[in-house]
Amino acid sequence: MKNLKLSLIALAVMGLSACDGDDGTNGTDGSNGVNSLIVQTALAAGDANCPNSGVQIDSGIDADSSGTLESSEIDSTEYVCSPGVTTVDSSELLTNVNNEWFVEGQEEVTAARQTWLEATNTTSAKITADTAPSVAAKSIASLRGSAKNVILFVGDGMGISTVTAARILEGQMKGELGEENQLSFDKMDFSGLAKTYNVDAQTPDSAGTMTAMMSGVKTDVGVIGVDEDIERGDCSTVAGNELVTALELAEIAGKSTGIISTARITHATPAATYAKSADRNWEDVSDMPEAAVTAGCVDIADQLVNFESMLEARISAVDVDGIEVAFGGGRRHFLPKDASFNSTDAVSAVEGDRTDGRDLTAEWQANYSNGVYITDQSGFDGLNTETTERVFGLFNESHMQYEADRENDVAGEPSVSEMTEKAIKILDNNDEGFFLMVESGRIDHGHHAGSAYNALTDTIEFAQAVQSAIDNTDPEDTLIIVTADHGHVFTIAGYPKRGNPILGKVVNVGADEPAMAADDMPYTTLGYTNGLGFRNLGDETDADATYSLEVAAGRQDLTDVDTTSTGYHQEALVPLSSETHSGEDVGIYASGPAALLVNGTNEQSLLYHIMDFAADLTTQANAAQSQE
């Protein structure tokens, strides 16, 4: 440490005369005085006495005239401390401000604030710390009914880990590292979380979760469009426990309505928009117990075809015109169990399942002479969106194909993004607006089969459908919400380096070879907690091929296995006949009128209330009903 020494010399009286006269006498010489020393020591930042740096000042008498102030000679110690730094010069931030992550963050914050101001019709001039809450409250209230159209996208089984992995895979498919990529809905203005549990279950199913989203009421596992007072499988408990859905309110309000699913259109998620059932499995009459049929309960396919008359019978004084667009799979539930009714792409000897002899596709056509019934890509492509008033598309005997396997469909079928665009162009012919629900049901099925590849490629296509909706609607009048009904036991694990193939084996940071687990075998980034387990099916693109094989849970030697192939299925820890749902929260993403209401952690049932508020569905439905 550098010492700075200052000496003050006490001058001796040297016999200087007091005056310049020549009549005085010289004085005697005095003795030398002693030295007083002051020593200054610079202190570094962090010193106990001067945390922000400073100077320690020691003073005392140099009794031994050594010219150095010893510790025993110090009489006084003082400190002059530097003040704390309260400002940062812009030059000191150059490392930050010139960084692309920093710049992007600044831009996003600025854009987000502006989005909030515009969404709430406020300006910075109106807002102070005291007035902000009341201004925001008034502004938010003014948003009621601001959405002419509502589109609800449901990625079935699309948990947070699925979104993350699909985002990376899409980026890597575009030649990027992947992690920096954004799916279409990642870019939406507002987001939050939804708690997915059912009233009677910690880990939910799609029937209870979708009922919550569509009706605003949480309910039990396995029941559709009814509240928790229902007893699953008991037809007699349905009456009086039916719930009104957002789609039904939109119908009553005079809006056009549509349903899209890559699963069977009678499956739990799409069914919850229009049906009331004591059991999600009652997709057609052959699935129902005789007691339920005798008691008067109606199967889900029947409820779709006769939605209009059944809604009018259930709610007095309403006059609706029925669902305008229905796209999905599940033809077997609408056709009689008779080979003569098989469609051109039937894969079963007898496509239909119905045991009551009814052809519901013919009944639908009889109900709507202006409607178009289609079963394949050719029929879909031939639709004129400006003149088509109503369309019923059943593109597969059961579920539609996985996106990766779609080209293998016998008669061809549209993608979910194609169906979304077509539906919007038909529905927006109504000046009163529309309500559309779009489900990517096969994300869920890919996970159940233990195939990350199929689940993620369907998620990527689902994101394309969201982008299609963004491109074909006006953000000023269309609320778009993207969410999931539940997640899966799907994990992203290990410590793979940036850009490592998301479907590949873990390669650690700084390494070029796969990392080894404690059993001296490589392992993949993606995996499942339970399920059928490992498959190495090469270029197979149909995840459901796994169900013809025995369970192969547990560790496998992946040294010579290409885990990025389309037919690879990840390892699973717990052996089960099918991988299961998970119970964690799922994401909600939103843009458009009233989208700012999507924030924080919410009960899943809140989604209904946001849609109802944004489009003011209840008020409009009541007004329409009173006019009948």
TrEMBL record:
EC code(s) of this entry: 3.1.3.1
Ranges for domain DUF7151: 35-81
UniProtKB keywords: Hydrolase, Phosphoprotein, Signal
GO molecular function: alkaline phosphatase activity
InterPro entries cross-referenced by the UniProt entry: Alkaline_phosphatase, Alkaline_phosphatase_core_sf, DUF7151
Protein's name according to its UniProt entry: Alkaline phosphatase
EC class: hydrolase
Highest taxon listed in the record's lineage: Bacteria
Keyword match Hydrolase: yes
Family assignment from sequence similarity: Belongs to the alkaline phosphatase family.
Tagged with keyword Hydrolase: yes
Signal peptide: 1-18
Pfam families given in the database record: Alk_phosphatase (PF00245), DUF7151 (PF23657)
